[in-house]
Amino acid sequence: MKRIIGIAVLLLVVYLATWIMADAFSGRAVFMSGYNQENLLRRIALYGILGIGVSLVIITGGIDLSLGSVVCLVGVGVPWLAVGHGWPMPVVLLLALALPLAIGLGHGLLVTRLRLQPFIVTLCGLLIYRGVTRGFTQDQTAGFGNGFKALRWLANGEVPLFPGFGLPVPLLILGVVAGLIAVFLNKTIYGRYLLALGNSEEAARFSGIHTDRMIIVAYVICSFLAALAGLLFVLDVNLAQPVDFGNFYELFAIAAAVLGGCSLRGGTGTVLGVLAGTALIQVLRNMINLVFPAYQNMEYAVIGLVILAGVVTDELAKRAVARQKA
Question: Which of 74, 36, 95 is nearest to 240 (CA)?
Answer without folding.
Answer: 74
